[in-house]
Amino acid sequence: MTHTDISSEPHMHLKADMTRLFHRKRLINFALPLLLLSYLTYVFFAFDVPDLWAKASWKNANTLVSDSYSYKTHVTRDNRNGEVRVAIEGERKGAYPAGEAPAWVALGETTVIDLQNGHEVIFGPETIRYTIPGYGVVRATPSRSAGVQAELPAGEVPEWINASKNRLSITTDAGRLTITRNRAEVFRYFTGWELFFFTLDSPYHGMGPVALLQHAAQGEAGAIWDAFWNNKMWRHADVAWAMGETLLMAVLGTFGAGIVALPVAFLATRNFMPLRSLRFATRRLFDFLRGVDSLIWTVVLARAFGPGPLTGALAILITDTGTFGKIFSEALENVDQKQIEGVQSTGAKPLQRYRFGVIPQITPVLLSQLLYFLESNTRSATIIGAITGGGIGLLLTQAIITQKDWEEVAYYMVLIVLMVMVMDWFSGWLRRRLITGETESANG
Amino acid sequence: MADLTAAPTQTVEIRESYLAMTQRKRVYGAILLVFFVAMMVAGFQTADARNAGGFWDGITRIFDYPTEVLSEAWEKASELPGHIAHFFPALIETLNIAAASTLFGAMLGTVLSLLSIRGLARWPRLIPIFRRVMDICRAVPEIVIALVLIFLLGGGPVPAMIAIAIHTAGALGKLFSEVNENASLKPVEGLASVGATWIQRMYLGVIPQVGPNYVSYALLRFEINIRASAILGFVGAGGVGYELKNAMSWGKGRYDEAAAIFILLFVTIVVVDQLSGILRDRLTHGTRSGAQA
């Protein structure tokens, strides 16, 4: 009896253990998702998501999306003097010279605007006519005394026509016509980014790549480049400078932090710094630099240095000095003492001991961390630039604030993403070259 | 005999070529160093020239602003606890943005990383696409998405949350993928042999292996996201950053509020840093001690 008791006891224990384990697992499996769900429900209401749905502006979304890949050309008639002007996006930078117009606009006593697919707007001396296929002809006569007198085809007014005493607006797939007392305006939409290469005042506008190459071969390459580089609409030169500034912030900040942090990191290590108080103070300094966060550093530095790339670079430098200090001091604590002793045994002075005994050991960690942060700081530099005002971040915020240059926003976004991806690839490549290359040569 | 006479000349040759090599290496190193220093100096000068205020002028004034803020806060020290209590809900909002975006980002990152494991992916042909998606998500700075979403949705925590979540999905997705590469295939094969579906194989075969590492990375990301959500608040996405911007743009007279927010932010970052450090340590080393016990 006692024998069986002894042998069954561990079994019972094991069984009880397993039951408990299963019980716990089951509990976790249900409790964890439940906890997650209840937290998300809390956040859902804390962030006022139901209200957000009502607040969201679908009109803005529509403008944003359509504007980011298309542009519109405005044909505007001043009703007071009958003058007709054509401008891309209605901006002065994109205006056609007086008396000139794209092929689909025939200027004259009566201006005929072809909106394709049978849509046609005619600016007569008095009356404006819009021929809409499948609907009819809309006539409108603006005058100072009587407002806008519209004559619509018989029947119910469709919802895409908005007519009142002083205003008529018609929105169709082909374009948009707006008439007020003082002016009549037609928008025609095109796909693409307008005037991306050359503005209208450049002689190279509208030339195909072949014709451009011919001109370049005839010695106009400099002029062509100049026209493109100083494009008033897209400001390629400024954008390139801004990208350069952002990269500069990242590079200066990262490597500057590395240079500052390396010597100071020795003070925070157990094996190189016998003084406990100094070690403690250095470590707390690193924690402080890291804890204050780049946002606060940016704000404080912007007060002293004003907006610009230097402020951004210093903000990155200070924050990362804390981070690097921590990482480097940890790496320094893990160095192999034997190499240092070996160097020392040849009669090396302290500085030489550090140079030949310590630095080679931590170089891989150092380089890989620096390069890793270089990539992530390219992104930070964009963000800091948006706050302090420097680099591509500034251009981006400026373009967003106008709330209409979404094609530029899209362009900058593409550039930023490409820049970060290129930096990511470059730092990865360099890391592999420098670090694995080094171990290979050490083995060989 | 001939060998004996040949040996010394060989040693001399070796010695000479070795010395020449070290010499060359030293010269290259020096050139590289000079080049690097020159680039840094030139870069610094360019940055200095394009900055609104100069470096040597600004360095003397670097403590002006903190002193101003701190002295005003010191004068009104009795109001500081009140301010801290007042801004505490904003801090909670910032933390919520960070937590929710880390959660969503981790979920999306998990799915993306599981879909791009070599040999285990649901649709092996689509692996490059999922990887590119992760790369792009990772490359987009949060502020870009946040600013666009603020235009669409109005200011508030949700644009910031979405923006940070997208970036987090990319960043965590990459780290998770690296963890997945090291997961053992045996449990997955076992599950496959009993007819488990892809989701079951992932949930029961891969996730338990990589879970602790996932959580550890997600905690690290949470720390980073707190900072990010404070920054996004500064451009209008709610939370403590928004309050800081308001207090700062007001200028003198509300510096005590700015100081209170500085303190809140600093303490939060340090506390979360420490807590997640301890937790991460337990996650990566704790399991080992648990197995020993």
What does this entry show, briefly?
The complex is a heterodimer of chains A (444) and B (293). Chain A has 444 residues and is an alpha+beta fold.
Given helix and strand content, the structural type of chain A is alpha+beta
Using the CA coordinates, give the radius of gyration of chain B.
28 Å
Output the CATH homologous superfamily of the largest domain in chain B: MetI-like
Number of domains of chain B: 2
Return the CATH topology of the largest domain in chain A. MetI-like fold
CATH class of the largest domain in chain A: Mainly Alpha
Strand order of the largest sheet of chain A: 2-1-12-11-10-9
Q: What is the helix/strand order of chain B?
A: HHHHHHHHHHH
Q: How many separate domains make up the residues of chain A?
A: 3
Number of helices of chain B: 11
Report the uncertain regions of chain B: 288-293
Summed over residues and divided by their number, the pLDDT of chain A gives a mean of 80
CATH architecture of the largest domain in chain A: Orthogonal Bundle
Shape of chain B: flat
Shape of chain A: elongated
Q: From the alpha carbons, calculate the radius of gyration of chain A and give it in angstroms.
A: 35 Å
Number of strands of chain A: 12
Largest sheet of chain B: none
Sketch the topology of chain A as an H/E string, one letter per element.
Answer: HHHEEEEEEEEEEEEHHHHHHHH
Q: What's the mean pLDDT score of chain B?
A: 82
Description:
The complex is a heterodimer of chains A (444) and B (293). Chain A is of the alpha+beta class and 444 residues long. Chain A has helices at residues 2-46, 49-55, 58-69, 209-229, 236-266, 276-305, 309-333, 337-345, 350-388, 391-402, 406-443, and strands spanning 70-78, 84-88, 105-106, 111-114, 120-123, 128-132, 136-143, 147-151, 161-163, 167-171, 175-180, 183-191. Residues 438-444 of chain A have low confidence and may be disordered. Chain A has three domains: 63-191, no CATH class; 195-222, no CATH class; 236-443, MetI-like fold. In chain A, α5 packs across α10 and α6 runs antiparallel to α7 (309-333). In chain A, the strands form two sheets. In chain A, strands 2-1-12-11-10-9 form a six-stranded antiparallel sheet. A six-stranded antiparallel sheet of chain A has the order 3-4-5-6-7-8, with no helix packed on it. Chain A contains eleven helices and twelve strands. Chain B is mainly α and 293 residues long. Chain B folds into two domains: 2-59, no CATH class; 69-287, MetI-like fold (Orthogonal Bundle), CATH 1.10.3720.10. Chain B has eleven helices and no strands. In chain B, α6 crosses α9, α7 (157-181) runs antiparallel to α9 and α9 packs parallel to α10. The model of chain B is unreliable at 288-293 (pLDDT under 50). At the A-B interface, α1, α2, α3, α5 and α6 of A face α1, α2, α3, α4 and α5 of B. Chain B: This is Phosphonate transport system permease protein. Chain B: The chain crosses the membrane at residues 27-47, 97-121, 142-166, 258-279. Chain B: InterPro entries: MetI-like (IPR000515), MetI-like_sf (IPR035906), PhnE/PtxC (IPR005769).
